[in-house]
Structures are given as C-alpha cells and as structure tokens.
Prior knowledge:
The chain is an alpha+beta fold and 613 residues long.
Amino acid sequence: MQKYFGARICELLPRINTDIFIPSIQRPYVWEPEQIVKLFDSLMRGYPINTFMLWELTPDHFGDWDIYRFVNNFKHGDIHNDPAVLPPEKAATLVLDGQQRLTSLLIGLKGSYTVRNGARGKGAGWINKILLMNLLDSPDDDEEDTDGLKVRELYYSFKFVASDRLPKNDTTALWFPVSKIIQITDRDQLAAAIDRLLLLNPDLDGNRQTNLRKNLHRLWQVVHEEQTLAYYLEREQSYDKVLDIFIRANDGGTKLSKSDLLMSMITLRWDQFNARSETESITYAMRKKLDQENAFDRDYLLRSGLFFNDLDFAFQLRNFTPRNIAIIENTWQRVKRALLMATDLFAQFGIKGGALTGVNAVMLIACYLYKVNAGRPEADWTVPDGDERRIRRWITSVLFHGVLSGAANVTMEFYRRCLNEHLKLQAYFPVEELSTRMTTRGRDMTYDETAVGRFVAQEMKHRVAPLCLNLLYDREDWSIKDWQVVQVIPSFRLLEDRLRLQGVQPEEIGVYQSWGARLANQMILTDDEARDYYSMDLEDWVATRTAEFWQKHCLPNDPALYEEFNFLEFVQARKRLIAQRLDVVLKDSARVPEAGETIRADLAEAALLGADA
C-alpha cells in the first residue's frame, strides 16, 4: 500500500482546518518570523523542506483524541490552539511531524504574525504583520566568492511588514503581499496580474520588469504547479504505533524539546484532564501575572508535579513512568492550586519581571503550600498566619544571594528534605532551619560585610535592585503602586560644577556621582511623602523629618551628612544602618508566634540604635 505522496501547496493548504488538524501530542507553534522567511526562500530555491508525517484517523476514534485547529493569525508567544470540530462522516488527517512548517505556510499565504512593538509602559502594544515579497529584487544580483558561489543566506526578498503600514513602492522595490498568489489560480490570471503590475509601475527599467516577471512566476509555480510537499501517510489506528512514529520522527534533533515528547506520553495516559489545555492555561496565567514571556513552560509544570510528590524531579524520561504519570494526574488539581497560590504571593511581593531572577523560587514556595495544606479541601487552602512575611523575606534573600544558581536541583532537593522534616512537627514556614542549613552547605544567606556592601552598591537599573528595596522596606503588598523610588541626595546636587565648588577633589567626583545612582542613595516614599520631598529644599526637608522617619528609612539623623561634600560619609553611615536592619531580617522571621500573637519586625528599634550610634 502506498504511504508516500507528493502534493502542491495549493492542494494541501485548503485542507488545513477542513480535514487536516493537529493532535494534542503536538506542541504549540513556536517559529519566529525569520524562520518563515527562510522556509519561503527554500521553497523558491527548489530546496526540499523535509517529509511531512500524517495520520489518518477514522471517525470511530475521534472521541479518543483531543484535536486542535491550526492557527493562521498567530500572536507571538501564544500557546493556544482552538479545539477542532470534526465532520463525523469522514476520516480526519492529523499531523505527526510538520506542524511548524504547515502553520508557517498558512501564516505566510493566508494569515498574519503579530509581534510586540518593543515599547514599554503606555506605549506598549502589538503589531500585526503580513508576509511581503519584493518582486524587483533578483536572486542573481549578488556578488560571488572566489569559488563562484553566492555569499548571502537568503536569495529572495521576503519580509514581514505591519499590515497597516505597508512600504511604498518605487523603482527599486515593489512589495507584493504573498497571500495574493493563492487567488491567482491559472496561468492566464498570472499573465494578467503581471501585466497589471507593470501598468501600475510604468517607470521600471527593463531589468526590473524582467525581475518582476520571473519572481512572480516563480512564486506561482511553487504554490500552484510544483509538488513541493512530500508526506508519509499512516492509516493504522494503533496508539502505540502512532506514538512511536511521533517520537522517532521528533527525537533525532532539536525539532522538539524533551517536554514535548513527554507531554505526548502524558496526553495518551491522562484520563481525568486534557493535559495540553491544562498546561497551557496555567502557563499563560503564571506568565501574565509574573510578567514572564517564556518562563513556566511544560518542563517546569511537569517537574513541579514530580517535586511536590517527593519523586525524582530530574527532567529525564526514566522519571515519567506510568506510575509517576498517574500520580501527577491524581494530584494535578492540588499541584495547580499550589502553583497559582505561589504566583499570587510573588505578584503581591512585587517579585516579578526582571526581579524574579530564578523561577524555581516559585516552585519552592508552591511546594511548601502544597505540603502545608495537605489533607484540606482546595477551597480551604490558605497561607498560614505569619507566613507571608516569613516567606517574602526568605525567598527575597534566596534570590539576592543567588542560592538557586549553579547546582539548583541539589539545592532544591535539600530544601524539600528540610521541609518534609519540619512539617512533621510544625505547620509554619521554617526560615531558621532553611537559612542555617543552606549556609552550612555552602549557600551563604548571611548578611556579612561583603553581602551588605553588594546590597548598598546595587545600581537601580540592575534587576536585583527591587529585591533589595523589598528587604529594606518591610511592606506586605507591593502590588498596589502608591509609592515611588526617590533619591535621598538629588542628582543635580552631585553635578560636577557643584561638587567642585563644595571642595570635592576632581578624582573623587566620578565616585560621588556613581553612588548617587546606587541603592545607598535611594528611599521609597509614599506619593504624599514624595510630594512633600519635592516641594522643599533638601536642607528644610532634612530639618523637618521625625525620628520615626529616620528609623523607617534607615537614614542617619545627622543634618551635616546631607551636605554634598559629605556624601560619601552619608553613604557609609547609611550602610551601617542597613547592615543592622538586614542582620535581623531573617532572625526575626524565624521567630515563631505564640498563640494569639502576630509576628512583626522590631526593625525600627534596631535602626534607631544604629542612628543614635
């Protein structure tokens, strides 16, 4: 029985989302626009683009599989495919290998690719792009190297352009929307289209007119005339055989990650949940809430299922036995609940975006929430009293000290073992045990002279700076933006001319200015406090501060230190105060509340002692 076939693009493309679909064992679409451009360039050059692998699924097996539609209007980073509605009277064809290439053809010839505009803040948005081809650019124009071979990677001029801002045509570039080639179904229509383009562009010289004819004719040939697509069609309905074909087709290179192969196994074995939609929904929720574009992928979610259930969580095929897959499925709702609770905590702590320097930190806290709430209905899950502060201080210190860098799996296993031992006797987050044991095994979490020096010297543009401010200011909820970071000594007072007048040596001016942008010179003020600060001269502002204010911000209460000439002495004084505060951060967090007592930091007293000193 014949299993290998050839097809023209114009024949196969209309079948997509009509009788050709995607099985749930496939990963989402991941190609970048540059890869689509290379695909079309390869087709135009007559290069093979590898064989597609298709599986014909009979209607009596439709209910056994989750089947999805191809996406033709793709949004970068999206992991969602809509479920397919299959006609019950005929077989469907599922793509086992080639989804990325087929989707790319669909996007280029019938759809669009939406990307971020690169702006931040209020100007952030998306740009919808379509594929264009410059019909005037000849693939034969470039210079050749000494061997007579062309030196450029792309021969034909394809590019994605914003659909609402198409480039203007001139005598050097005539940009043709590639999707229009689908509408030209025969050679007579092709000739008419070429004549119309020449009529609309009368200033083209002879060479450009020739390029236009050749390029459009070649594009039409690729889509309508040549059998550029080759595919293998499997008709057997055996799940095991199909999975074996899928894994063998995709396990030989970098086409699929290990998580995609493992997800295919899980998809076939889970009965209670749709593994693909479950992982997609939680991935989207965690990425959005914690401002992460590529984190929290399938690898992460599957490892969490192993980690929470005290299984070997190394991402190896050997760990995904049928038994372990069943354990993950049976506990999936609780795993998901713990991950989302931890995500909410990190968002509340303000540890997101660049400040989340290690996403495994979320898994650590989710594991604790999973274990401390064991045996309770999910609706009753909660963060134990006092734990939010303990968790926030500890995990912020973990990220600041880089505890999860290097051999992270070893550190995480150490954490899990410590957690299990502690939770046999107590139901609160074990800051003291974790901090002490981490330090003992070489993951130093103490705030010694070196650590404090690194802390106060953080430049505010560095991703660790928000973590430092989080530790310095004991705020419970950072998600409400009613505060702002303000320089204690404003930058205009550290300008070169002003410092020279103050008597600062020329060789020290750069040092003064450098410290002006570091954490030692930053404070967090409420909006009202900031308005008060900006409305007064610095000297008047200093003179009207209270002892409580100095304590809260770890600021020295000596007015002389706020003079520009004494700025480095101000930095040293504040460093000492910050050191005293950091010294008690984890110690205070480790203290366990007695019945009816609410844990709170006595940091103000420590700061006051330092200020008086």
